[in-house]
Amino acid sequence: MLIQLVKTLPNVFSIGNFICGVLSITINMSGFPEASAIFIFLAAFFDLFDGRIARKLKADSALGIHLDSLADIVSFGVAPALLFHSFAPVSLLTSFAFILFPTMGVVRLARFSAHPTRGYFIGVPIPAAGLILAFMGLFSYSSSFITIILAVLMVAPIKVKKL
Amino acid sequence: MLIQLVKTLPNVFSIGNFICGVLSITINMSGFPEASAIFIFLAAFFDLFDGRIARKLKADSALGIHLDSLADIVSFGVAPALLFHSFAPVSLLTSFAFILFPTMGVVRLARFSAHPTRGYFIGVPIPAAGLILAFMGLFSYSSSFITIILAVLMVAPIKVKKL
Questions:
Q1: Membrane spanning segments where (chains A, B) (predicted)?
Q2: Chain A residues touching chain B at CB-CB below 8 Å
Q3: Which residues of chain B register pLDDT less than 50?
């Protein structure tokens, strides 16, 4: 019973990541984009631990892997893109960057789930890209150029070592 | 070459579903919740066809299944919850319903991806639940009670026939 309870701990962390992503979007909608950035950092805190705890507890599960990926698209794909959108001036380039970022994020996550790699990633992981946008948002800064570069790096055929 | 191009068609539909979900959230953020509901319906149009086209073209792929699931959490989990949030009066019950809906949605999607069923679903599918909230939003209507019931139905151990 206790062991089963402990084994659900990584999933609780993934759900924590997801809820922080949803709250980040809501707070941004309510007109507090800087606070919304902080929730993306909080999501990353949960995300950092779910995989580690799962491996430590030997509780890696198919359910856990899917939960992690579904939380990531909201917290590090959609929420950071909306944060960028809140600060960026209205232009065609802004709209392009705003759509490209989460779309490349979703392609990256689906690819990784379909063909997982061990010890390394192909392309920059979505939490890293999302955190850079969140960090920029914390200082009310936006750049379509950086957002597009990050979007492309997520699906670029480059090997990135797992931390 | 042409066959390969045709086989990516279902994935293009899933990405269409995802982009409609992102646009629904953005339009809601810009103060047009009714228009945001329409984008959830558009997402459902894309969602209806991706699986069918994939089966017809015999182009079902692991990538496609993951793309579909990642699009669904945004378009039928997060976007409808935010739509509900736009119309609902501020209260503890509203906040509870607002968080519960996408959270049960993410659990449902992760469960289905981890243990897929054929010909039937366990629990109400997330597009159905999301579309009910979108339909309510179209008439500027919200109900915490209905939102909580839908959230619970998504993870309830009931068999639902696939359409």
A1: 12-29, 35-53, 65-84, 90-107
A2: 15, 18-19, 22, 25-26, 28-29, 61-63, 65-67, 69-71, 73-74, 78, 81-82, 85, 98-99, 102-103, 106-107, 109-111, 113-115
A3: none
- Per-residue model confidence as pLDDT tens digits over A84-119: 999 999 999 999 999 999 999 999 999 998 888 888
Q: Which member of B29, B61, B81 has the closest CB to residue A82?
A: B29
Long-range contacts of A59-62 (CB under 8 A, 24+ apart): A59/A6, A59/A7, A59/A8, A59/A9, A59/A10, A60/A10, A61/A7, A61/A11, A61/B114, A62/B113, A62/B114, A62/B115
pLDDT value, residue B66: 92
Domain residue extents for chain B:
2-161
Contacts B22 to A, Cβ<8 Å: 78, 81, 99, 102
